[in-house]
Amino acid sequence: MLPIRDFRPTRIFPTIMYGIIVVNIAVFVLELYLDSVGYLEWFYENFAVIPYLIVRGENLYTLLTSMFMHGGVAHILFNMLYLHIFGNNVEDSMGHIRFIVFYVVCGLIASFAQIFIDPSSQIPNLGASGAIAGVLGAYLVMYPRERIDALLGYMYVKVPAVLVLLSWFVLQLFSGFLSLGDVSSGGVAFFAHIGGFVAGAILVFVFRKRRREQW
């Protein structure tokens, strides 16, 4: 089920959300250039998370830089679509500063969740998926009944957010457990998605503003 849009209005312009999208696109354009001149692997090795190095206390800065990197066109398109649909309302509920802190913390927890599964891996991990999963978890907690336009196969449907987001999470869980026996070969970092989603669903209670603050 692929979400297309939601209908919940916001009171503030989602400056941080759009800023994150712009940075991700800019970094992806840089990746395309580096690929054309033969330096993309160097870029991955130096700025993506490599669990083996993180466990040894090396290249810790990659826990942040990896959140703005992507492994292909489909990877960045789907990530930015989900962030664009759900991120504005989460930022609206938290405010700009709280939202960026929330986003980064969810991304860090997502990375550590994947590192925990295979701490000896030397395969670069990259992508905004873990941080965006945190946004999805927060949206589910706050607006489970919000109507979402989505594509289900070739059908266009209107469904509650809880159905879209829980189906996404269950898919990550199922895929993650299926991948446990083959984590060393690379692929999608399902446990980063799971960790980020759970973190977002919990941390939203810390980061969202109280009603009195909002008004």
Question: How are the secondary structure elements laid out?
Answer:
Layout: E1 2-6, H1 15-36, H2 40-47, H3 51-55, H4 62-65, H5 73-94, H6 96-117, H7 129-142, E2 147-152, E3 155-160, H8 161-178, H9 190-207, H10 211-214
Antiparallel strand pairs: 1-2, 2-3
Helix pairs in contact: 1-5, 5-6, 5-7, 6-7, 6-9, 7-8, 7-9, 8-9
Structural summary, described in words:
The protein is mostly helical. It has one domain (2-214): Up-down Bundle (Rhomboid-like fold), CATH 1.20.1540. The protein contains ten helices and three strands, in the order βαααααααββααα. The chain has a three-stranded antiparallel sheet. Helix 6 (96-117) packs across helix 7, helix 7 (129-142) crosses helix 8 (161-178) and helix 8 crosses helix 9. The longest helix is centred in the first third of the chain and has 22 residues, at 15-36. It is globular. The model has no long low-confidence stretch (mean pLDDT 91).
